[in-house]
Design a protein that fits this description.
Layout (H helix, E strand, L loop, with lengths): L1 H26 L9 H7 L4 H19 L15 H6 L4 H9 L7 H14 L17 H30 L2 H21 L5
Helix pairs in contact: 3-5
Length: 196
């Protein structure tokens, strides 16, 4: 009977710990000074773990200034530092540019897009992250690709025809096909031989 009470007590403790962590995750707000109140208000709209990351990055701006670094000169929210690429969050460079630079990068829309990213899919955003590079070929590249595909198609037709004749088992027909193919292709190959 005593063992059952111990198990129930442990279960209640685990449940209350879980509820406290869930509460902290969604409700708890990080306390900070040295950062503009408007920025802190926007940071508070993130979950508590992300608030901690963002506050560290915002405070790192002072370290950058103490080291004599000026604003990075960003013109958009695209920064390629390790923090930004790893966490997909605002980094010290973006904060530095916004606070002390010429560009006010952190507009209401910018904040909403960062906050919305986590509202839509939570931390799952880190599970399937990949880079998509969209390549738009030029007209010349399209034409080159079409010619390449035409040659591949012709080669496949010749190969298919050869194997269908070969499978018949008639050696004379196979030899005749190869001979005709060589006779047809040799002048073409000779005509377009590269001059080195």
């Amino acid at each position: 009977m005593c063992a059952v009470h111990n198990i129930v007590n442990v279960d209640c403790k685990k449940r209350s710990d879980s509820e406290r962590v869930a509460f902290d995750f969604h409700i708890k707000k990080v306390s900070v000074y040295r950062i503009d109140n408007n920025i802190v208000e926007e940071i508070h709209k993130f979950s508590f773990p992300l608030q901690n990351l963002l506050v560290k990055e915002a405070c790192a701006v002072m370290d950058r200034i103490e080291k004599g670094k000026g604003p990075p000169g960003l013109t958009s929210l695209n920064c390629y530092c390790l923090f930004r690429n790893r966490y997909l969050l605002l980094c010290r460079h973006i904060f530095h540019e916004h606070i002390y630079g010429n560009m006010k990068l952190l507009t209401a829309d910018a904040w909403k897009s960062f906050q919305g990213m986590f509202e839509e899919c939570g931390y799952e955003i880190y599970e399937g992250r990949e880079t998509i590079i969209e390549f738009m070929p030029t007209e010349k590249q399209k034409e080159t690709e079409n010619r390449r595909l035409t040659v591949v198609e012709l080669t496949e037709k010749i190969r298919d025809r050869y194997w269908s004749i070969e499978e018949m088992g008639d050696g004379e027909k196979t030899e005749a096909f190869i001979s005709t193919l060589e006779t047809s292709l040799n002048p073409i190959i000779s005509k377009f031989k590269s001059n080195k």
